[in-house]
## 1
Amino acid sequence: MTYKASLIVAPSKAAVSEALNSVIVDCSREAIKKRGAFTVALSGGSNVGFLSSLSDAFSAKGIDPKFEAWHVILADERCVPLTDEDSNMGALQTKVFSKIAIPESQIHGINQGEVGNSNAVAADYEPIVREVLNKSGGQLDLAVLGFGPDGHTCSLFPNHVLLKEDSKWVASLDDSPKPPPSRITLTYPVLNTKTRNVIFCGAGSSKTPILQEAYDTVTKNDSDYSVTMKDPPPFPCAAVRPFDGNVCWVVDSDAINGILNKT
């Protein structure tokens, strides 16, 4: 079965934030209008920097973000103290949440008392994820994800056993090929069966080989592009395909260089 996604190409890395945050504005506005809440999963890495201007995107469109209706979970997290430089939540708090008025009780990090035991962290986090999704009709409104030069997303790495996880919503690992080794991650059962919208965001030429292999065809629309995904998915990121949802890739011109003529 052919899986189609949308593609937005920013002219530069500096312009990725505006493109990404514009999509988030639209997703949040629709979710709050329909269900009175907006549930979103955020990843760390370079996406944190792109998200730092989120508030500006609402101002530019003249839209009230209604942050009091937002409920945030982590797409994945490293099992480290909040003050550790590897903590996704620590980075998000410093660069994103400090600038927007989401109630602290609606921003859900991991249990800091369990960071030495990834299994316990995952077991503690799964009911939180389920409770958050219940606030938006049992589905996550949006997952904002990155993708690495090896094609991983969240903490789902190539050839890892967690790619076959079919029941847990949150899983742990202690053998991440990228340090730190101990982490928790959302799994395909959540991303593919419990998520309405997914945004993949990335910039730079290191992303080009992943996009080259992940996309089968690219078609120009009026202001953006549509892509068909290659089967079987060559990377973990390319296997995120919500059964009843949408995937949007937001990348810069360097990442997509030489690919836009794939027809």
## 2
Amino acid sequence: TNKQTKKKKMVDLDKCIEQLYRGEHISAKDVKAVCELAKEHFSQTSNVIPLNSPITVCGDIHGQFYDLIELFNIGGRPPNTNYLFMGDYVDRGYHSVEVVTLLLCLKLRYRKRVFLLRGNHESRQITQVYGFHDECVRKYGTANVWKELTELFDYLPLAATIDNKILAVHGGLSPSIDTLNDIRSLERVQEVPLDGPMCDLMWSDPDERKGWGLSQRGAGYTFGQDISEKFNHNNNLSMICRAHQLVMEGFNWSHVGNVVTIFSAPNYCYRCGNVAAILELDEHLNKNFKRFDDAPQGSRGIPAKRAQPEYFL
């Protein structure tokens, strides 16, 4: 449509991408235009986006921009590789603005190659506590960019299927959800609720114990092997791919191969010492996990000397 072409002209995605790859944040005006384009795009997508292999699946990034660049060095830069990111782009790391705007620009530039889900940190409430809000104010002088981006987060899809055999979701399962159609029928365009099915998808974790358990996170549930086996069987799935939990080896199988956790922020919070991983799926859904360490110091530009905010400690 005419309107769309006009909007596209408002922002030069290639220029933004180039600027962001250099580690420079884009202007507030460009962020606003990107958010409008993205909102327009995501408002037309289903809660559960149907994707095809081959595709590379990634877990939490948490504002670790130089490690995202390292991830692209390991897995290939879009559009040469198809990517699914399972949320948690912001908070904790120092470069949430650059991470989330780069991923949004890549999504809009290569719409059939890059896919983004919502994580529990893509929310107004959480980002006011864990750093993204403060980073936006520090870099742009006002909270407007934070407001626009968190408004956009409401539109991000909740889950994806890959070849109808793999379910990808940020956190996990919910006692209120038995089928993929239950996810498809949720009203998703809202702040992540404090409880209920949408909250659970963002917050839940697999557990050694059977059945449903209360989560120590204060939101979502823990779910046992019996739950994931039944869900996968009922929905004709071979496995669930999720992120949300720091795993020291970058990925971790649980529930006898029914669930895999992928975590893509190496040396999380710049101090956890973990390796990161991504999962490459070929067109037959063969799995190749690629592990990587945090980006070498030399690739990070000159680090800002800054007292660590309290939430790092």
